[in-house]
Write a structure and sequence with these properties.
It contains eleven helices and 18 strands. A hairpin with a 2-residue loop joins strand 14 and strand 15. It has two domains: 3-322, Vaccinia Virus protein VP39 (Rossmann fold, 3-Layer(aba) Sandwich), CATH 3.40.50; 332-398. The model is unreliable at 328-358 and 387-404 (pLDDT under 50). The strands form four sheets. The protein has an eight-stranded mixed beta sheet with strand order 5-6-4-3-7-8-12-11, with helices on both faces. It starts with a helix and ends in a 6-residue tail after the last strand. The longest helix is centred in the C-terminal third of the chain and has 22 residues, at 309-330. It is an alpha/beta fold and 404 residues long. It binds S-adenosylmethionine. The site of S-adenosylmethionine (SAM) has 19 residues, from strand 4.
């Protein structure tokens, strides 16, 4: 076994030995995945961890919705166009053998498109210069896919990854294999160092509870994508206390989570997250391809307190309910009418995205995803009249069920 694997296994064991902190951090949802996880000492398992399902639950190449090559190509085309000269970020890493396809000479997966999209959003909305040695701290970094993409975009960034022990083991492997020259700091170093986190490393891999030892006002960008939504309310409050403490003046927090998700007995809602009043909204919208998820980018405003900030965040619960209702309505058989020649095409389809000016229609009969640029002209609870900028001049989408 090589040195890296030995180190990873040693650190996993050290983390799970901290039984009380570990069990406090495990929600009902993640207890299930932890119990299923076996830490292999076989190098071949690590070399193929994404294919073999070791990253199940934290990797959307497993059970992805853009499975078919032509659907993935549609996703790729959208993201590539959006990213322009940054489209190199879409390239998937071969580490861990993900389920990915070659498109236009690039290795592509749904995950790689997603992480490229997040990274580009951060670049364009924060205006952080790419050469800046920023400190990025990710809570719930999964197998490290976004951290890798961000390290490609911001090559001088220092990354701090906090997660549960099994995800952290995968991220340590993945990041080290992608960037073999990184000087990494592990939980074993943390323990040897008396719980002090020194600033002199390139990458940090630590279990969630070590965040307590992060110095105040030390981080430029905190990230949480699709992970708070799977924690308990207690742990979310715990992380918020530390985010408020460790983030720099004018630092950013990128928080992308479901409007609501049932975790055990507890509904976890983004509108209930305990933000204090010292934030400014920089970006806020339902995620373009997954409208049950909300994308928030916030900036720290230490000099002002905005009494309206919490009520603004609470509004997200209402938006979530509305979107859920619309989504449920949309999961029905649709009639799509091409009014240019008057033909009605009965289509068994699911609309899983209708955001801004893009509609994604998944046709269950052909297993294809159609993407249309649209303008909604008129909409009521039964139908929407939509103007399509592309092939069809006008589409009428009827929400009502038809018998087939
Ligand atoms: C659905 S995955 C998302 C992974 C990644 N952020 C993404 O967007 O693909 C949720 C992540 O949250 C992590 N997580 C769950 N509970 C946590 C906790 N208490 N502290 C830190 N991470 C946690 C899981 O281990 C997992 O890596």
């Amino acid at each position: 076994m090589d040195m890296l694997l030995k180190k990873i296994i040693q650190n996993y064991q050290l983390a799970i030995q901290e039984k009380s902190a570990f069990s406090h951090h495990l929600s009902f949802h993640w207890k299930y995945f932890h119990d299923q996880f076996t830490l292999s000492n076989n190098p071949d398992d690590w070399a193929t961890f994404r294919k073999k399902g070791f990253s199940k639950g934290l990797d959307c190449t497993i059970g992805q919705k853009f499975t078919k090559q032509d659907s993935l190509k549609i996703l790729y085309d959208i993201i590539k166009k959006e990213l322009g000269r940054f489209s190199y970020l879409i390239e998937e890493s071969p580490i861990g053998c993900p389920d990915a396809s070659q498109i236009d000479g690039q290795l592509v997966s749904e995950s790689s498109c997603n992480f490229a999209y997040y990274a580009f959003r951060l670049l364009t909305e924060t205006h952080i210069p790419i050469e800046k040695p920023i400190k990025i701290l990710e809570i719930g970094s999964g197998y490290g896919g976004l951290a890798r993409t961000l390290k490609q975009l911001f090559p001088n960034a220092i990354i701090y990854l906090f997660d549960l022990p099994h995800a952290l083991a995968l991220a340590s492997y993945y990041i080290n294999k992608n960037f073999p020259n990184l000087n990494a700091f592990y939980f074993s170093n943390f323990l040897e160092n008396g719980g002090i986190i020194p600033p002199s490393y390139d990458a940090y891999f630590l279990p969630g509870w070590a965040i307590e030892k992060m110095p105040d006002a030390s981080i430029d960008l905190v990230i949480n994508t699709c992970s708070m939504m799977e924690m308990t309310g207690d742990i979310i409050r715990y992380y918020f206390d530390h985010i408020h403490r460790i983030i720099n003046k004018n630092g950013f927090f990128y928080c992308v989570n479901r409007y609501t998700k049932q975790i055990g007995q507890e509904p976890i809602c983004i509108g209930d997250y305990p933000f204090d009043s010292q934030w400014k909204l920089r970006f806020s919208a339902p995620k373009w391809d997954a409208p049950h998820i909300h994308e928030l980018l916030l900036q720290r405003e230490s000099s002002i307190k905005d009494p309206n900030f919490q009520p603004t965040i609470q509004q997200l619960n209402k938006i979530g309910k509305l979107i859920t209702a619309l989504r449920n309505k949309a999961i029905k058989v649709l009639k799509i009418k091409d009014s240019s020649d008057g033909i009605i095409i009965p289509t068994k389809a699911i609309i899983f995205g209708c955001i801004h000016d893009v509609i994604l229609i998944f046709n269950q009969t052909t297993n294809k995803i159609y993407v249309k640029k649209i303008k909604i002209i008129k909409m009521n609870d039964k139908m929407a009249i939509i103007e399509s900028k592309f092939r069809l001049e006008e589409l009428i989408v009827l929400w009502e069920e038809i018998s087939v």
